[in-house]
Each structure stands twice: as structure tokens, then as C-alpha cells.
Amino acid sequence: MMKKLLAGFGMNALGSAPSPRHELPVSRLDLARMGIPARKIPRILQELQRTADSNPLLQDRITMLRLARALDKVLL
């Protein structure tokens, strides 16, 4: 009975639920103080959020600031 129930949902349906978002320890103002151009800040925040959501060990403020500086060099 249980196999029929799970097969009815589809195997990918259960894994596609949105994951909880973690609050970033870095703000727009922090990135601006680092000298990151305003046009790059939204994209860098997106990448930092994606990183924080995928790996909770990388939620340290210092790590996020270093990652933001590296992303600034890579993004156009």
C-alpha cells in the first residue's frame, strides 16, 4: 500500500520542496564598504545566499566577506 502511495506522488515531487533560507551575516552596506560596485551587489548577494543555503558551515561572516571579494573579481 505504501509503495503505491509514494509512486503516485512521483519521485522528484518530494525533493522539490523549497529549503529554508538562512539569513546572511553580510548586508548591502557591508559590500558597498568593501568597494564592490552597486551593480554587482544584487548578484553577489544571490550567490552568497545560495552558498549559505547549500552549506551551513559557510555562514561565518568572515568567510562570507572573503567569498564576496572573490565573487567581485570574477563577475563582470
Describe the structure.
- The protein has 76 residues and is an all-alpha fold.
- The protein has a domain at 24-76.
- Helix content is 55%, strand content 0%.
- It contains four helices and no strands.
- Helix 3 packs across helix 4.
- The chain is globular.
- 9% of the residues are buried.
- The mean pLDDT is 82.
SSE topology:
Layout: H1 2-9, H2 28-33, H3 41-54, H4 61-74
Radius of gyration: 18 Å
Helical content (DSSP H or I, runs of 4+): 55-70%
Total of helices: 4
N-to-C span: 54 Å
Strand content: under 5%
Mean pLDDT: 82
Order of helices and strands: HHHH
**Number of β-strand runs:** 0
Q: Rough shape?
A: globular
Supply the helix-strand structural class: mainly alpha
